[in-house]
Amino acid sequence: MKTRLIKRCVHIVVGAVLYAGLAVYANQVPASRPANIILIMADDLGYECIGSYGGTSYETPNIDRLAETGVRFEHCYSTPICTPSRVQIMTGVYNIFNYTRFAYLDRSQTTFGHLLKAHGHATCIAGKWQLGHEPDASQHFGFDESLLWQHTRRNFSNETKTDTRYGNPQLERNGKEEDYSNGEYAPDLLNEFICNFIDEHKKEPFFVYYPMILPHAPFVPTPDSKDWNPSGKGVPKGGGDVEYFGDMVAYVDKVVGAIIDKLDASGLADNTYIIFTADNGTLGTIVSKLNGKDVRGGKGLMTDAGTRVPLVVRGPGVARGLVCDDLVDFSDFLPTLCDMADVPVSSGLKINGRSFLPQLKGLEGNSRKYVYCWYQIPKFIEHFGPLKVQAFARNRRYKLYLTGEYHDIKHDIMEKNPLKSVGLSAEAACVKEELQSVIDKYQTLSNRKVKND
After folding, report:
1. CATH (domain of 50)
2. 67 pLDDT exceeds 60?
3. Do 363 and 381 belong to one domain?
4. 114 or 32, which is more confident?
């Protein structure tokens, strides 16, 4: 009797353990399922603004938490302004080959949305579009669902002549216009859209691309600011106050934290990559502290202040707390996302990027010897004068421009003192020759005729 009782108790305990294990398993993602990916790209936010990079002007605890639990890259480079960066990050191709004009992405191009959708990922995009006004634009480029600002409409309301991106915004959901007037804040609407998408697709692999509208000018109060006005209808072009920039950076971080918390609560964190970056440097009216020094934003400039951006990644198999010194540019995102999702990139798709997934896992990978940037200056930026195209090739230390101007960034990060050809060290002379061959290669391959837009 006693033996039978013991056996019964063992059966009950084992059964309870198995039931608990099955319950946990039911709420977890099968190991064989491709990874989910969330790519977040802030708008006009240089690396100097982020705490984990040494920035002290703003609080960014959630982005810093990503860095603590993932990998932070010291050398990630975008282009100097919005549209060129959006084109490059989505296509994996340098602008010299496929950039046509500001606020447009050529509809013949293949994007990471296309590739991930074709291999089974549910796809969505939320945030700032600026890549064509056709109602089907986001769906055409591979996104099942979209909630966007600056899609079918321009930056400013035709009726009130005010910016429409923040309080009581004008958005487009899947190409259909939606106007808000009850105190809504666009970043909150976008986050709600993304979180709902995660809920709806948590049983299948998904890809979320979130090109934020924050913290781009106009600099205005957020719902967490003391003087937030829920009845506000935006500000005129050129309006806003730089004093609100800190509040807006804090809201960027809050939004990132909300997405992290959503993944954690949904049991999806272990099978989801979260990538945080920015499209270009901070606006020039903003001065921030980095490691005790003042750094003025360089949006629109080819300097580090204009093109060096944060890149922090957390996800399955990603090393914890690693700082990577390898070079990355925006052409590398498409192959990396495909690598994360086990999606092959056809050899017929002529991209310029290379995957940095191995580096995320602490491996050597196929690291770059240089990054390349080609930039066609839009006609609305007039202070550059007659020079309409700029380009550079660089490694971590040295940087060579299309004009022949050459800099030692390690000792001259503001690029105030170009190196002279006479008297270069053997190392500097050798690197210059290598970088010149990079510039010449892309100029020759593209055979591009410059057209100012």
Report:
1. 3.40.720.10
2. yes
3. no
4. 114
Which of 304, 336, 368 terminates a domain? The answer is 368
Helices (H), 217-297: 245-266
Place of tokens 């039931």: 19
Beta strand extents in 249-396 (DSSP E only): 272-278, 287-290, 293-296, 308-309, 311-314, 322-329, 371-376, 389-394
183 Cβ neighbours under 8 A, 6+ residues apart? 167, 168, 230, 231
- Residue-wise pLDDT for 382-422, tens only, equals 555 556 899 999 999 999 999 999 999 999 999 999 999 99
Domain count, the chain: 2
What is the Cα–Cα distance from 42 to 299, expressed in whole angstroms?
A: 13
Q: Let me know whether 141 and 222 are in one domain.
A: yes
Q: Is 45 exposed, middle or buried (0-12, 13-18, 19+ CB in 10 A)?
A: buried
Report if residue 19 sits inside a domain. no
Q: What does the pLDDT read at residue 154?
A: 81
Q: How far apart are the first and last CA of the chain?
A: 91
Q: Check pLDDT > 90 for residue 129.
A: yes
Tell me if 17 is assigned to some domain.
no
Q: Is the pLDDT of residue 27 over 80?
A: no
Convert the pLDDT of each residue in 323-352 to its tens digit: 999 999 999 999 999 999 999 999 899 999
Task: Find, among 335, 279, 271, 275, the residue nearest to 112 by Cα.
Answer: 335
Tokens of 34: 């491709």
Stretch (H or E) spanning 336? helix 333-340
Amino acid at 398: Y
Q: And the tokens for 417? A: 């003192």
Asked if 339 and 41 count as a contact pair (C-beta separation under 8 A), the reply is no
Q: Which residue range forms the structural domain that includes residue 352?
A: 35-368
The reported pTM is: 0.92
| pLDDT number for residue 324 | 98
Whether 340 is covered by a domain: the verdict is yes
> Is it the case that residue 89 has pLDDT exceeding 60?
yes
For residue 306, give the nearest of 79, 25, 48 by alpha carbon. Answer: 79
- Residue 27: inside a domain: no
At 265 the pLDDT is: 96
Domain match, 83 and 196 both: yes
